Amino acid sequence: MKLIKLALATAVTVTVASSAVAGPVLDKIKQKGFIQCGVSQGLPGFSNPSEDGTWSGLDVDFCRTVAAAVFGDASKVKYTPLSAKERFTALQSGEIDVLSRNTTWTETRDTSLGLNFTATTYYDGQGFMVRKDLGVKSAMELDGASVCTNQGTTTELNMADYFRKNGMTYEPVVFEKADEVVAAYDAGRCDVYTTDKSGLAAQRTKLKKPADHMVLPETISKEPLGPVVAQGDDELFDIVKWSIYATIEAEEMGLNSGNISKVLTNPSATPDQLRFVGKEGQLGQNLGLDAKWAYNIIREVGNYGEIFDRNIGPLELPRGINKLWSNGGIMYSPPLR
């Protein structure tokens, strides 16, 4: 084997400048002291208000991660409930700062609405729910059915594509508000209710007799759900995106809300853990945030597994492909380094 030496005539030094200057939306957020987050009008497991007006859910918790990253306090969030039809307009107009409302990432939405999808927080797929006494066991038996769904969603197009592809007819029954869809289906105004399968599990809890209804086995679409921001503020885009990834990375490293503080004083902490909590490196500086931004997220909100179990667990939905990549799922964070 012949070894070849390559000599560089000139040494090249590359300097990467970090931008700590807030963009227009992020600057507004910092000035007012809270994040205005657009959520659903009530979807258990994702964004749902209690009787005293306290919001909870997976989408809500990802609003809270951003507040924890920016302010060190996950409570610095105000919520705006939005219908599917009005959600994008609210973000485009500046009525909200971040949209975290079980919203599917599609090419058309990402390129034509002046919006940026950040990262996927829940991988879902569309399904169908029917009354058990209808005697239907498969979506392929729905020819001629009346189908309730939400107006202004990817669900409408997916439904049309599915029936067309399989040579079946159907009668769409659409409503703007999710609760109107549920009420219509529960009252027997349609044979079938279609939306994301997580939504079906959540909305079934609102029916008069949940046990009388079943979700059919077919999954007819890909529905990657996650927060959205308006184009034009790269700093906010980066913060929302990496706040999500921080929860995934923390779970992979075995860090959670109960043990994250121990890393600060643990002489055996790994280099990755030390960077994560801000004791080494400049991850926070790169984002224009405090060095402990990721530490604050996990301390205040928890890792992805905690967020999932707290919110989706009660719906009795399996974690499935939302498991970490190392556990057979597809949840994966780029390296935090």
Q: Please, could you describe this protein's structure?
A:
The protein is α/β, with parallel strands linked by helices and 337 residues long. The chain has helices at 24-32, 58-71, 87-92, 107-112, 154-165, 178-186, 197-204, 234-253, 271-276, 283-287, 293-300, 304-311; strands at 35-39, 48-49, 55-56, 77-81, 98-99, 115-117, 122-124, 126-131, 145-150, 170-175, 192-196, 213-215, 223-225, 228-230. A five-stranded mixed β-sheet has the order 10-9-11-8-12, sandwiched between helices. Strands 4-1-5 form a three-stranded parallel β-sheet. A two-stranded antiparallel sheet has the order 2-3. The protein is globular. Residues 1-20 have low confidence and may be disordered.
Break the fold down into its secondary structure elements and pairings:
Layout lengths: L23 H9 L2 E5 L8 E2 L5 E2 L1 H14 L5 E5 L5 H6 L5 E2 L7 H6 L2 E3 L4 E3 L1 E6 L13 E6 L3 H12 L4 E6 L2 H9 L5 E5 H8 L8 E3 L7 E3 L2 E3 L3 H20 L17 H6 L6 H5 L5 H8 L3 H8 L26
Biggest β-sheet description: 5 strands, mixed
Secondary structure tally: strands? 14
Shape: globular
What radius of gyration results from the CA coordinates? Answer: 22 Å
The percent of residues in helical segments reads 25-40%
**Which regions contain 5 or more consecutive residues with pLDDT less than 50?**
1-20
Could you give the order of the helices and strands? HEEEHEHEHEEEEHEHEHEEEHHHHH
End-to-end C-alpha gap? 37 Å
Q: Count every helix, treating DSSP H or I runs of 4 or more residues as helices.
A: 12
Strand content: 15-25%
Structural class: alpha/beta
The strands making up the biggest β-sheet line up spatially as: 10-9-11-8-12
Mean pLDDT: 93
